[in-house]
Protein: diguanylate cyclase
Amino acid sequence: MRIATITHWAYGITVVLTALSGVSFILSSNSALQERAAAEEHLTLDTLAEDLALGAEMRSDEARLYVMRGEVRHLQAFRVQEAAERRLETVASDLAARDPAPAEAAALRAINAHADELDKLEAAAITAYQNGDKTTAQEALFGAEHERVQNALLQTVTHFRDLTAARTTAALDAARDRSNWWSLVAKVMLATTGALFVAVLYFVLSRRVATPLRHMTGIVSRLAKQDYSVEVPVNRRADEIGEMSDAIEGFRTNLIEREKLDAERRADQHMKDLILQMMHRVQACRDQLELTDVVVRFAPQIFPDLAGGLYVLNEGKTALARVGLWLDPDHSAAEFPATACWGLRRGRTHHSGGSGADVPCQHVDPPGVATLCVPLTAQGDMIGLLYLEERVDGALEPAGPRLYLELIAENVGLAIANLQLQAKLTALAVSDPLTGLFNRRFLDETLRRHARDHRDEPLACLMIDIDHFKRFNDQFGHDAGDLVMQFVRQSLREACASSGDAFRFGGEEFTALLPSFGEADAMVLADMLRDKIGGFALSYAGQRLGAVSVSVGVAVSPAGGSVETLVTRADAALLEAKAGGRNRTIAASNIRKSA
Structure:
């Protein structure tokens, strides 16, 4: 039988028993109300009779005291007691009008008659006393007649109380008996209802509902905590519990599928977010070193199961050199010819090794390793290679990662091409085309930057001029002159390699900036440079060009003056060296001393 059918029957029987129990309680309550009414009536009648008797005695006492002492306060108290007794008599008359028992009605009439007779005697005595007849008044109040009437009143009151007590006590007992009987019936009904409820709880809720639900609650709790390893027991019951068990099993199956889809979606979204972050940073890189660092940082986060490296082609497009790697790839050389990679040859992604893979690349060792080579291109030109190899079997099988890798390769290739182009343009903007040294524009920029950021730090300047340079051009031709300039360039670059920067100032004049150099150190380096240049004889086209010499002017800042006047002071020292016979070094400070 289904649980719903059992509970419906139990519910119907419980409702009937509850209704009967309610009716019994109502009847018991009505009997209790009747019992209370009987008790209240008994108390009211008894109190009324007692008050009548006590009032009569107190009124008689006040009248007697008045005729004995003549004090007005006793007369006033008599009047008050008289008014109170009138009110009580009115109440007694009302009770008599409610159709009481014949004996009680006769007793009430007798009480009123005795009270009226007593009132007349006491009123006549007070009137006699007020008229001056004290003896008559005292005889009336203390005489046998007054005593007779008062005793008759008290006896009638006592008889009335006995009659009412007998009647109300009988009514009270009957009401109590009915209330107790209906209360017992209600209790029996409640006990039966409780027994039925306990039976339903035990046999239905406990054995058929609670125990299976307890097991299912544990299962649902584990499912809520995403513990999908829990097994739902097979339940063959043809009731609601069996249907619930089947529903939970279906819910578990759906949750497992949904969790798989959500995990794949989260992983894909996480990968896209990382790729987007990587592309934003790649586009903001200022040089190839920064770009390499970005790729090396993000690649293992995007593809944790793939080790790899970033390769860049040389200027001749003949060989690749690895500029960065992640997760320690083991199967590709750091450098190899461009022809060793099928990806570069074909200009498209090449998958080698693994199931259904293509021809292995020559730079992969051993050849059977699963690798992926993704060319880096920009506007149809090969820039480099994105090389990857599996750290976990099957990591390269899905098509999704390959699509993302090709997207990354496209953006990285464009970024590297842009950075290489920017480097070439920057080199052209700051370099002298003949000597390859920094040009005059970059010299001015370097001085401005030093004046802005490092004004108080030492800086030495060498102004260098090739002595009698026009002779080389006139006697041996301009190509020979270019050779002389390139020789001086090379000597100057070697001398300043670890000390500072070399510039072509213009014509046959060169400049060197030496940070952290004082005048003495700058003079030593200038003399060493002159000795090196003068100690080598050049030849061109089979002709000896002879020795080459240079004149050098030295100035320093801030000890010798401001950065803004540094080149001017060094140039003035150079002019002094040329005027003094050339092939010598003059410091700007010596010009001021001689002046």
In short: Residues 483 and 540 are 8 Å apart (CA to CA). The longest strand covers residues 381-390. The mean pLDDT is 82.
